[in-house]
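Support request from a user on the community tier.

User writes: "When I paste my structure tokens into the form, the page sometimes reloads and wipes my input. The last time it worked, I copied everything first. Here is what I submitted, just in case something in the input itself triggers the reload:"
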């Protein structure tokens, strides 16, 4: 079967159009695989970092894209529970071994042999994608393909980060940066009765934060008016980690939601003292995805999307880099 895909052969600045639309031969599904016809795929900052080389490529050429919504067109002989035409979602975690200590602990996100969509295996910037059926996700009704795509990365990783804060109803949470992931995370946090304080650049983002229920919104490094119980940093800038630490109460925690960070600047020990903590969030598990998708239907979560055809994938990356995207960029394949 012939298809089309946006291939990354050599990382370079997005202004130089690192992705080329090429014809590809779609391989048949393996014994455990689904072959999906891609309907939508979100464009994530991780895709941008991979295309520009900030995130080291695991293989080249590769098709990026890890927020995939598609329809099943073929199945492997060992696949159970899926049928032709079923709608399936695909997120960052493409495969984990299931046998190592981390997997047996329920932390398959830390599997040393894990493979990730659009990094180790071809992703969804394409007309078709092959995925392991055991890692495909059922999507809630009530979300169109385009609206569902942002849930599969920004939503899922934001949910994991929120869970790692260990906050309960009445807790005070700082959100540093207010892109697609933070806009979903604030909806989950407010649903759980958590107060949210947003530090972000740009008046438009601050207005969006207040509209989504933030108790306060200020500049990207501005201190909130109260001590925070926890904070999540979304911006890939180390300075925000220091700003978040400075805003914490004793015993508070900063969860760093980034796969790539420019640096962690030097800061005085007094900001970490009194048992404050810094914790990264790395990848996601299937449980994270299933929990977030259930919450998305219950709340329900509203996603804001900017739609581009596959041929405009480089433009979508450029707009993401420049901060022009309102919400999440999504390819309508």
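"...and here is what came back when it finally went through:"
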């Amino acid at each position: 079967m012939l298809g089309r895909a946006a291939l990354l052969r050599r990382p370079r600045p997005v202004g130089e159009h690192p992705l080329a639309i090429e014809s590809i031969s779609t391989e048949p599904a393996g014994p455990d695989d689904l072959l999906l016809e891609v309907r939508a795929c979100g464009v994530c900052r991780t895709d941008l970092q991979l295309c520009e080389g900030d995130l080291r490529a695991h293989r080249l050429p590769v098709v990026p894209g890890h927020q995939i919504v598609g329809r099943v067109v073929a199945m492997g002989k060992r696949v159970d529970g899926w049928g032709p035409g079923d709608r399936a979602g695909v997120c960052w975690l493409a495969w984990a071994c299931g046998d190592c200590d981390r997997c047996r602990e329920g932390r398959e996100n830390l599997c040393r042999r894990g493979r990730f969509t659009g990094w180790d295996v071809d992703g969804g910037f394409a007309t078709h994608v092959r995925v392991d059926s055991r890692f495909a996700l059922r999507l809630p009704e009530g979300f169109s393909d385009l609206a569902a795509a942002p849930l599969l990365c920004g939503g899922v990783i934001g949910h994991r980060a929120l869970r790692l804060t260990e906050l309960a109803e009445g807790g005070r949470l700082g959100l540093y940066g207010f892109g697609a992931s933070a806009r979903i995370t604030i909806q989950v946090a407010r649903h759980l009765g958590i107060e949210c304080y947003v530090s972000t650049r740009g008046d438009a983002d601050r207005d969006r934060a207040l509209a989504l229920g933030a108790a306060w919104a200020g500049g990207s490094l501005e201190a909130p008016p109260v001590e925070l119980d926890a904070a999540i940093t979304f911006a890939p800038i180390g300075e925000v980690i220091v700003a978040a630490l400075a805003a914490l109460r004793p015993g508070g925690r900063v969860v760093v939601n980034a796969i790539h960070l420019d640096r962690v600047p030097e800061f005085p020990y007094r900001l970490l003292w009194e048992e404050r903590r810094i914790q990264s969030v790395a990848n996601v598990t299937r449980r994270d995805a299933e929990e977030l998708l259930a919450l998305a239907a219950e709340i329900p979560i509203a996603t804001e999307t900017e739609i581009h055809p596959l041929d405009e994938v480089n433009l979508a990356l450029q707009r993401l880099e420049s901060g022009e995207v309102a919400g999440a960029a999504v390819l309508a394949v």
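Agent notes: The reload is a front-end session timeout and is unrelated to the input. The mean pLDDT is 96. The radius of gyration is 19 Å. Escalated to web team.
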